[in-house]
Specification:
Layout (H helix, E strand, L loop, with lengths): L2 H13 L7 E4 L4 H12 L8 E4 H6 L5 E2 L2 H13 L8 H20 L4 H4 L6 H7 L5 H14 L5 H27 L1 E2 L1 H11 L11 E4 L6 H14 L2 E3 L4 H4 L8 H8 L20 E7 L2 H17 L7 E4 L6 H7 L7 E8 L4 H14 L2 E3 L3 E5 H8 L2 H6 L1 H13 L4 E3 H5 L4 H6 L9 H15 L7 H20 L7 H13 L2 E4 L7 E4 L11 E4 L19 H6 L5 H14 L6 E7 L12 H9 L4 E6 L12 E2 L3 H7 L16 H9 L1 H9 L14 H19 L7 E2 L4 H6 L1 H12 L13 H23 L2 E17 L5 E16 L2 E8 L6 E2 L20 H17 L4 E8 L13 E2 L2 E2 L7 H15 L6 E2 L13 H4 L2
Parallel strand pairs: 1-2, 1-5, 3-4, 5-6, 7-16, 7-17, 8-14, 8-15, 9-14, 15-16, 22-24, 23-25
Antiparallel strand pairs: 9-13, 10-11, 11-12, 18-27, 19-20, 20-21, 21-22, 25-26
Length: 955
């Protein structure tokens, strides 16, 4: 029989004739509907239901003071603090420790401590003896020991600490005055006001009152309940078991043993104490790797019970950690049709918080200029655009906008580009907050617009929207009372702190379906099948936290609660789960990381040692088997050949791609990498950056030179660059650099651009390299520019092993081609230290593992010869072709020569070597299309170090 069923029996046995006049008071609101369910099953005719309250709701009926929310209370406390502390910090800084101070004040009232004595001006041990005459010898000893350890000798720090205590006493008094004036308060403040009243007057109440299921009462709660017992003949029904009540070493029964000895409450204890914990029960304790594994395991267990015909109302899942709610909900099997969540969920963990926080980041990094209008930094902008609320709402236009931002590397995104999407949510977020509007109102406007769109598509988000609306309204009211407008940085901090302390109180129909609840919500409720997650030490019971201005020994001296009290409460909640259950399954995380100990709760160990229950311990884990790393090999199936055909004329022109020298170099490095990158066409996403990295530095340098010389030959049909052109070229360097940066950051030509931070240094380096190339070109002039970043391609017929002929498309964007005196230079710009030495043409095709340019293979040399091949294929063999590298790290050497060297000699004409190059290239391409040659991993694992696909290979 459940505890609530026992309460129902008590009501019917003793108050059936006046059931509707009865008032039943529980520790919380959860038990009321369950009690009425039990009553409905036990009566045979219609009767009036008793009135059911939580203790808080019941006592609030006798007071005119309204309970205020935490945000309002902390603000009132801040106002009181400012009156006694000149030059105090702002509200957002005060908020964190203001919450802590508020908890201390709540405990002062709950435990009916004299605040003047607690926060007294303590100067020395003698001062303790004189001013704390009310302390007994043990209390005085504890306080003296505290001061000796905290401050071994009198110091300025001690004086400041003592002065703070003195201020806190005054702050407490002023805080209470402000609350009384406004007619608001916190729970223990209202209780204490009632406790003061009952000394002078009786509280008016009619009908029987039954207090049911209480365990750990604060002194003020105990006083009030005892008043109703002694003055109004109220009854008390205890939810207890002999296992912990009659055993003095069991902390779970510590409070109850005190009440059992009390002159008033002791009479309410039954003569025979129930003993149900040690009865036969199935108890399983399971260690699981990681927390998500616990949710999955519980989902499977619940599914098995439902399959066996167990009623959902007999099953409960208990979550000591709030953040485990959604993993558990996602793991619930489909056959569970009804589910009730009875717990709070942190507002800060919701998706809506992420969107609002990103919106504040948008405002923080917003820029306004007369030339460009409003622009926003890309990181928070992309966070907003990719948020599920917006992405699902505006998917198609947002896809294009996000791709454009990334493709163009738009570090700053301009308002008109965003507003083109036509989303009312985006229009509300990406705007400037006007002077008459505060940031709380800005966030409220976003929530309101979301409410008009999101609610229709999402269910749970309605709760998020409502609570954020409430929180922001309170923030708005409080900020309006500030004398100065709060800046964005201050508001961000305040918003985050305020959100941390707010929980969404999910509540459904408690009497139906599978129950999911927090630990405190289990009070008074009984289930046959109990599942509990996170049974780790420091989670259940929770680790000791020092969130108080009152030191431990001072707390002990004044009988304020310490961590022992917390452990006793946790112990009671743990053991009462065993009283009427049949099966209990506990799960803990074996993984010791992220603040987890990896140890099972000490309550489990106590149960194993002290109870008579048979407890089964097991661990869920996949056995680790070290296997030999198997090589990966991709056979050239028809499907693979079809994918390769994009580099031939076998597919429509719009689908055709060109094989570049870079692609062929990748093939030499690793055939499997070539398969991933150029056959499957998998690419790692490039991160946007407002500063140039090594790769982007080279891109901007290339564009600068392209823009510079394109401008120099504009209007010249022959592309001739003479000595007279270099005055203009030198004066155009800065403009070309700016244009290249604009291109890189997607700025366009009409918007104002300004170099900042590290990019200023990068621009100086580019200017240095460009000026050096200009010096070399001026010495080489006159010459004609044939192409800049010119696109060259060639059809290269190759016969594969299967007898098929493939017309392979080769292509490249050659940095620069110029000509002079019957010779053509094919120039490749390199920002690194690529070597120019080539041992032989055959060696640049050497795929021997570990081969580098020093041993023969030269990637840059291969690429430049490849360019020479494409040029001659498009323009014939009439002129000498000189392949060369402008290697940025060697430019400033006095003997620098741009030309490749072959066999130790400068390569003055590549034409005599093109036949050999073509022959070796034909062999390479034939191998790529050879059905008998698979795409294998490289044997040289040094090459895997910086590969984008090393995770796939397991290297």
């Amino acid at each position: 029989m459940t505890f609530l069923s026992e309460v129902a029996d008590h009501l019917l046995a003793n108050h059936k004739s006046q059931l509707g006049e009865c008032t039943v008071v529980f520790p919380n609101r959860r038990a009321g509907l369950f009690l009425k369910k039990h009553l409905s099953k036990k009566v045979d005719k219609p009767v009036w239901s008793p009135t059911v309250f939580s203790l808080e709701d019941f006592l609030f009926r006798f007071s005119n003071i309204k309970k205020a929310d935490t945000l309002s209370l902390v603000f009132e406390l801040y106002e009181a603090f400012k009156e006694h502390q000149s030059g105090s910090e702002g509200f957002e800084t005060f908020y964190f420790w203001g919450e802590m101070l508020l908890r201390d004040f709540e405990e002062v009232d709950h435990y009916m401590v004299n605040p003047k004595q607690l926060f007294h001006h303590i100067k020395s041990d003698r001062q303790i003896a004189e001013d704390f005459y009310f302390l007994d010898e043990e209390q005085e000893r504890l306080i003296q020991k505290f001061w000796q350890e905290f401050f071994p000798s009198a110091t300025k720090s001690q004086e400041q600490f003592v002065e703070t205590w003195k201020i806190l006493a005054l702050v407490y008094e002023r805080f209470k005055e402000r609350l009384i004036k406004d007619g608001i308060g916190y729970t223990s403040h209202i209780y204490r006001e009632l406790a003061d009243r009952i000394e002078k007057e009786q509280l008016s109440i009619s009908g029987p009152v039954i207090f049911a299921g209480f365990n750990a009462l604060t002194p003020v709660e105990e006083l009030l309940i005892k008043h109703f017992v002694s003055e109004h003949n109220a009854e008390v029904l205890w939810d207890i078991d002999a296992y912990y009540l009659e055993n003095e070493v069991q902390e779970a029964g510590g409070f109850l043993r005190q009440y059992q000895k009390d002159a008033v409450l002791g009479k309410s204890f039954p003569k025979e104490i129930p003993a149900t914990i040690n009865r036969d029960k199935q108890v399983d304790v399971t260690g699981v790797s990681l927390e998500v594994g616990q949710a999955k395991a519980i989902g499977e267990q619940v599914g098995e019970l439902v399959g066996q015909g167990v009623s959902l109302e007999e099953i409960v899942i208990i979550l000591p950690q709030d953040y485990m709610l959604f993993p558990v909900l996602n793991a619930i099997p489909e056959q569970v049709e009804k589910l009730n969540v009875t717990m709070g969920y942190p507002l800060k963990e919701t998706p809506l918080f992420g969107l609002l926080e990103a919106s504040l980041e948008v405002q923080e990094h917003m820029q306004l200029s007369a030339e460009n209008g409003l622009s926003f930094y890309h990181k928070p902008t992309l966070d907003v655009l990719s948020h599920p609320y917006l992405y699902k709402e505006e998917k198609n236009p947002l896809d294009k906008l996000i791709k454009d931002i990334k493709k163009k590397n738009q570090v700053r995104v301009f308002q008109p580009d965003i507003l083109e999407v036509g989303s009312s949510v985006l229009n509300t977020i990406f705007r400037q907050v006007n002077e008459a509007e505060d940031y709380a109102a800005y966030l409220r406007s976003i929530v309101e617009v979301l409410g008009q769109q999101v609610v229709e598509r999402f269910g749970l988000e309605c709760e998020y929207l409502y609570h954020f609306q409430q929180l922001l309204s309170r923030l708005n009211q409080i900020l309006e009372r500030q004398t100065e407008k709060v800046d964005l940085k201050t508001f961000k901090g305040l918003f985050r702190k305020a959100t941390q302390s707010v929980k969404i109180p999910f509540s459904g129909e408690p009497v139906e379906g599978l129950q999911v609840m927090g630990v405190l919500e289990t009070r008074n409720l009984d289930f046959k099948h109990v599942f509990m997650l996170n049974m780790n030490e420091d989670i259940f019971p929770a680790a000791q936290r020092n969130g108080s201005f009152v030191p431990y020994r001072i707390r002990k001296a004044f009988d304020l609660p310490t961590f022992e009290v917390q452990d006793a409460i946790y112990a009671y909640l743990f053991y009462r789960l065993f009283q009427r259950s049949e099966r209990l399954s506990f799960y803990y995380n074996m993984y010791a990381d992220f603040g987890m100990s990896g140890e099972v709760s000490r309550f489990i160990r106590q149960l194993e040692q002290e109870s008579k229950l048979s407890i089964k311990r097991k661990k869920l884990s996949n056995s680790i088997q070290v296997r030999e790393r198997l090589p990966i090999s991709i056979e050239k199936t028809q499907e693979v050949l079809d994918r390769l055909s994009i580099y031939t004329d076998r597919v429509p022109p719009k689908d055709q791609k060109k094989l570049s020298a870079s692609a062929l170099n990748v093939y030499y490095n690793c055939k499997l990498q070539f398969y991933f990158k150029y056959v499957l066409r998998l690419f790692s996403g490039d991160e946007l950056s407002d500063e140039l990295d090594k790769r982007n530095f080279g891109n901007v340098l290339h564009r600068t030179l392209e823009f510079l010389y394109q401008d120099a030959i504009e209007g010249k049909t022959d592309g001739l660059v003479t000595a007279n052109d270099f005055f203009k070229i030198r004066n155009s360097v800065d403009g070309a650099i700016e244009k290249a940066f604009r291109k890189h950051f997607g700025m366009g030509e009409k918007r104002k651009f300004e170099l900042k931070d590290r990019n200023v240094v990068m621009a100086d380096l580019i200017r240095k390299f460009v000026n050096k190339i200009i010096d070399m070109d001026e010495a080489y002039a006159p010459f004609s520019i044939v192409s800049l970043e010119g696109k060259y391609e060639q059809i290269f017929p190759v016969q594969s092993s299967n007898g098929k002929t493939y017309n392979i498309r080769l292509g490249a964007d050659i940095d620069r081609v110029d000509q002079k005196d019957g010779a053509v230079r094919v120039i490749d710009y390199k920002s690194g230290k690529d070597a120019k030495e080539i041992e032989s043409i055959e060696k640049v095709f050497d795929s021997t593992p570990g081969t580098t340019w020093k041993k023969g293979r030269n990637k840059a040399g291969f690429q430049t010869l490849f360019y020479a091949l494409l040029y001659t294929g498009n323009n014939g063999m009439g002129q000498a072709v000189i392949p060369g590298l402008l290697n940025m790290q060697e430019l400033f050497q006095p003997d620098f020569d741009y030309r490749l060297t072959l066999g130790g000699n400068p390569l003055t004409d590549a034409r005599p070597h093109m036949e050999t190059f073509q022959s070796k290239l034909s062999e390479l391409l034939s191998e790529i299309f050879n059905t008998e040659q698979s795409f294998d991993q490289t044997e040289d694992e040094i090459r895997c170090k910086f590969c984008d696909f090393k995770g796939i290979c397991g290297r």
